[in-house]
Every structure is written in C-alpha cells, then in structure tokens.
C-alpha cells in the first residue's frame, strides 16, 4: 500500500535536483512527524507513506477537483435559488414586473442571482472542506468530498428548473436533499447499503453513469449554462448556435452562427485541457478554466464577463476586491417542507438516494482498489465510517444550500501521487479553507469557462459503457434507453424509470416461462402424490 519508501521518492522528480542536505532535512522532518502523535494517528508508517508525500497528494487532488467550486455554484445558481419575481426590476412603463421577468434579462433579478451565486460559492467550499476533513480524521482515507456532479444538475434543472421554472421550489428541493442524506445515513448505519444497490438491474446501473455524463455534457454545450454551441430551434428543438448575439426575448440567433467570441475562446481552453489530460498533467481541468477566465476578465473585449452595463459595472467593482470573506445570506438554513407531499418530490427523493448510494459505493470501491486498500473479502479499513461521513456531509450540504455531497473520483489523482492516509484529505480541506477568502475571484468565472469542464466530465463518465454487454439485447436496450432519455428529456429520473421499465418488460417472458415451468413442476408433484395415495389405498383394499 505505498510502493517506494519516502526517502526514495522525496517530493518528486523536480526536487531530485536539489542538494543532498535538503533531502536529509526532508527525511528528518518525515521521520519526526511519522513518529509523532499525528503520524501515529494517521498511521503513516503502517501505510508506508510520509508527511511530504501526503501534502503532495492532497495538492494534486485539490487541483483536479477545485473546479467544482465555480462549476457547482454556477449550475445551482441557474435555478435562481431563493430569488423571486419580487426581485425583478419593474420597467418604467409598467406598474409591476411580468411573470416572465425571471426568464429574461432583468437587472434586479440578475443581481439577486449574482448574490446567490456568491452564497453558493461559499456553501460549496464549506461543504467540501467539512466533508474532506471528516473523511480524513474519522475514516483515515485519502479522499476528497464536494457537492457531486449530476445531482447538482438534477436539482437545478429537473427539480427547481432554470430560474425557478420547475415544479419544486429551491427550498423544497433542499428538504429533499436533507431527507435523502438522512436516509442514506440510516442505510449506512444499518449496513444495508449494498443490498439496496443491488436492487437496480445491472445494465441500468451501469448506464446511469454514462447517461448522467451525457446530461452534464449537454448542459455544458448550451447557450446559458455553457459554451453556447447548442441553442433552441422551433422546428428541430435544438440546433447549432454559437451566435454572435442572441435576442433576449425570442432566443433567436442574431449576427450569424458560429461567430460567438466566447465560444471560440472556450474551444481554446477545451483543447488546452484535453492536451493536458493526454499528457497526464495534474490539474489540467483547472488550467483550462483559469486560462478562459483570465482572458474573460479583460474589459473592453468582445468576450469579457464585465460588459459596460449596470450589472457588468456592479460585478466588476466586486471583482476588484480580490480578497473578501463573503457571508452566506440567502441559501443557509432555507429548507422548507411546504408542498412536500407531492409525487414529484418522492420521485426526486428516490432518484437522489439511488444515485447517491450507487455513486458512492462505486467511487469508494474504485478508490480503494486503486490505493490497494481492499482485502481478500473485498472490504477495506474505514469503509463503514466512510459511508457515514459521506451521508453526514450531504446533510450539512443541504443546510448550506447545495446538492448532495459525494466522494470524488478525482481523489485518484492524490492516490496515484502516493496518498494513503486521511492526512491527504485534511490537506484538501485546508486548501478549500484558503479558498474562502477569494470569493470575488471565484464568482467571476464565466459560464463559457465552466462549459468545457462539464463536457470533459461527461467524457470521463462514459467509461462505464464498456462494461455493458451490448451483445445481449436484454441488457443493451434498457442501458440505451437509460442513457438516451436522460439528456433528451432533461431528466435523470426519467432515464432511470425508463430503463427499469424496459428491463422489467423484457424480463416478463423469462418470468412467465419460469412461472409456467414452476406450475408444471408443482402439477407433476401433486399428480405424483395423488398416485402414491391411490396406490396406497388400493394396497389396503387388497389386504382387507
């Protein structure tokens, strides 16, 4: 569970060029900490790791998952949060704002959403910091936690809807997340998590990850939430866009397609990220986001996030603070159980619970396998507490105003760097803590900087399709239905329900055939018993 010794590995290839005296200092520090109470608590020597390696591993994991701060805040802010029609600016020629003011550019409502996004940035950081720290201290595993990709899109676009256009309010959606977290905690405490995970048909379970990946990529390609490549069309529903300008009322393309400066800037960042991932450069995703963001901060350009408008001026003035501790004002503790007893609420609860159980189970076992933590029985040290921490973090996240918190697959970056203990997770939590003081910068990341990372996350989530048996129609069709329905209906729940429904329908033949065989078997047994009774009676008659 560790490979090389700490002295052999040092800080890495870049530090091998340093003097031998520095290496001796490094080794002495590692030895001192390994033998200290901290080292013994995290079992550094037992897991064949050291202090400096754990720091490097935590840094690698943080760099690969820090994108979630702005990505998660941007996605959930698209729901509008607690913003209402009352926050809209009333036009000069009207006495009241129209109901569609939340779906069109409106200074008052846009300001409210901007403040909500700032709240969500802090909420995302806090939930990731608390979850990662708890995972390190309690479970002693090198895993980073943060609001999960997939559930956040489900909450924002399926439940609450874009700017509150869905069937459930933001406050009620957080209540669903709270109940889901409590249910997951109970399931984890009682140890029935694995049994529930096995209830879902295997092809549907495998297809869920790919379907959610397609859904996230679809969001990242759209005009409002991503790079702007895909836009609405009255005839074909969707079409290629990347327009130089979009009419805010009709959403029609103005100025020609594929002429959007922000789209082409996003493509440059997308290719940068892809090249980085090809070369296995740690933090490639954040480098791509950072490049697009830095260029977009330049005012006076066609791709700036700070146009010379009232809203642009307000955002730019806040951005210039650089360092600022933002206090959550609109998302903390707004959970509401009003209108809770509705069919869509219970469907959402079951969907989130299933996705959480399956995603957490798969991620934890994958990370344990990569780190070499699994024993002969398929379990690993800290497994029970890891599920407890994951579920408890979701409860904390719901109170802060974010979607379910999950263990991140990006933790594999730190594990590959040599992280083997919870000290890696504590380092991750420390980096998230530092992020709290740079809210003005983090809230100024544009959607076209986030879009490429969403597409890449979608690509990564497609890996599971190789495990689907495409030669078996009974498995292939439900898997395809699950994957295709999620992005096409803009609903993760619809995909899961559709996949399970088709699987059950295709299983009816086997079930009926099995039932007929069972009936025939029972019939033969009954006939045999009857014959035995008849023979017994005849024998008795002959004796008499």
UniProtKB/TrEMBL annotation:
<keyword id="KW-0812">Transmembrane</keyword>
<protein>
    <recommendedName>
        <fullName>Xanthine/uracil/vitamin C permease</fullName>
    </recommendedName>
</protein>
<feature type="transmembrane region" description="Helical">
    <location>
        <begin position="385"/>
        <end position="409"/>
    </location>
</feature>
<feature type="transmembrane region" description="Helical">
    <location>
        <begin position="345"/>
        <end position="365"/>
    </location>
</feature>
<dbReference type="GO" id="GO:0005886">
    <property type="term" value="C:plasma membrane"/>
</dbReference>
<dbReference type="InterPro" id="IPR006043">
    <property type="entry name" value="NCS2"/>
</dbReference>
<feature type="transmembrane region" description="Helical">
    <location>
        <begin position="204"/>
        <end position="223"/>
    </location>
</feature>
<dbReference type="GO" id="GO:0005345">
    <property type="term" value="F:purine nucleobase transmembrane transporter activity"/>
</dbReference>
<keyword id="KW-0472">Membrane</keyword>
<feature type="transmembrane region" description="Helical">
    <location>
        <begin position="120"/>
        <end position="141"/>
    </location>
</feature>
<dbReference type="GO" id="GO:0015854">
    <property type="term" value="P:guanine transport"/>
</dbReference>
<dbReference type="InterPro" id="IPR045018">
    <property type="entry name" value="Azg-like"/>
</dbReference>
<comment type="similarity">
    <text>Belongs to the nucleobase:cation symporter-2 (NCS2) (TC 2.A.40) family. Azg-like subfamily.</text>
</comment>
<feature type="transmembrane region" description="Helical">
    <location>
        <begin position="261"/>
        <end position="278"/>
    </location>
</feature>
<feature type="transmembrane region" description="Helical">
    <location>
        <begin position="500"/>
        <end position="519"/>
    </location>
</feature>
<dbReference type="GO" id="GO:0015853">
    <property type="term" value="P:adenine transport"/>
</dbReference>
<keyword id="KW-0813">Transport</keyword>
<feature type="transmembrane region" description="Helical">
    <location>
        <begin position="421"/>
        <end position="442"/>
    </location>
</feature>
<keyword id="KW-1133">Transmembrane helix</keyword>
<feature type="transmembrane region" description="Helical">
    <location>
        <begin position="168"/>
        <end position="192"/>
    </location>
</feature>
<dbReference type="Pfam" id="PF00860">
    <property type="entry name" value="Xan_ur_permease"/>
</dbReference>
């Amino acid at each position: 569970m560790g490979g090389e010794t700490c002295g052999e590995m040092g800080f890495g290839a870049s530090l091998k060029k340093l003097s031998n005296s520095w290496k001796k200092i490094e080794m002495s520090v590692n030895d001192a900490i390994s033998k200290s109470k901290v080292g013994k608590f995290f079992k550094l020597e037992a897991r064949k790791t050291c202090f400096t390696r754990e720091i490097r591993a935590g840094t690698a994991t943080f760099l690969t998952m820090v994108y979630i701060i702005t990505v998660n805040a941007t996605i959930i802010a698209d729901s509008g949060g607690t913003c209402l029609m009352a926050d809209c600016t009333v036009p000069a020629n009207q006495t009241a704002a129209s109901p569609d003011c939340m779906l069109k550019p409106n200074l008052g409502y846009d300001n409210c959403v901007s403040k909500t996004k700032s709240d969500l940035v802090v909420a995302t950081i806090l939930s990731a910091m608390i979850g990662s720290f708890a995972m390190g201290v309690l479970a002693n595993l090198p895993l980073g936690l943060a609001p999960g990709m997939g559930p956040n899109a489900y909450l924002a676009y399926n439940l609450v809807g874009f700017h509150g256009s869905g069937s459930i309010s933001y406050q009620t959606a957080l209540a669903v997340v709270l109940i889901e977290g409590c249910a997951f905690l109970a399931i984890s405490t009682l140890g029935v998590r694995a049994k529930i995970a096995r209830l879902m048909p295997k092809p549907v379970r495998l297809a869920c990850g790919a379907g959610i990946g397609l859904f996230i990529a679809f969001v990242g390609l759209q005009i409002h939430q991503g790079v702007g490549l895909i836009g609405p069309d009255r005839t074909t529903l969707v079409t290629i866009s990347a327009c130089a300008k979009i009419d805010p009322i009709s959403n029609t393309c103005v100025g020609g397609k594929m002429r959007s400066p922000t789209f082409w800037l996003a493509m440059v960042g997308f290719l940068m990220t892809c090249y980085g991932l090809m070369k296995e450069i740690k933090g490639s995703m954040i480098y791509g986001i950072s490049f697009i963001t830095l260029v977009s901060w330049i005012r006076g350009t066609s791709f700036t996030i700070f146009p010379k408008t009232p809203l642009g001026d307000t955002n730019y003035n806040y951005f210039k603070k650089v360092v600022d501790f933002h206090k959550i004002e609109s998302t903390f503790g707004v959970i509401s159980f009003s209108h809770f007893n509705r069919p869509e609420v219970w469907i959402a609860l079951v969907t989130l619970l299933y996705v959480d159980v399956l995603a957490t189970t798969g991620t934890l076992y994958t990370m344990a396998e990569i780190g070499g933590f699994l024993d002969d029985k398929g379990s690993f040290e800290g497994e029970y507490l890891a599920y407890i921490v994951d579920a408890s973090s979701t409860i904390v996240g719901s109170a802060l105003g974010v979607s379910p918190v999950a263990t991140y697959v990006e933790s594999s970056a730190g594990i590959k760097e040599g992280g083997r203990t919870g000290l890696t997770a504590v380092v991750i939590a420390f980096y998230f803590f530092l992020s709290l003081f740079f809210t003005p910068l983090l809230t100024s990341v544009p959607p076209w900087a986030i879009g490429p990372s969403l597409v890449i996350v979608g690509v990564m989530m497609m890996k599971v399709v190789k495990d689907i048996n495409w030669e078996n129609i009974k498995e292939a069709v439900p898997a395809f239905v699950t994957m295709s329905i999620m992005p096409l209906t803009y609903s993760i729940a619809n995909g899961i329900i559709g996949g399970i429904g088709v699987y059950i329908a295709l299983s009816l033949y086997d079930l009926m055939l099995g039932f007929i065989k069972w009936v025939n078997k029972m019939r033969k047994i009954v006939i045999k018993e009857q014959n035995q009774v008849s023979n017994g009676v005849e024998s008795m008659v002959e004796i008499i």
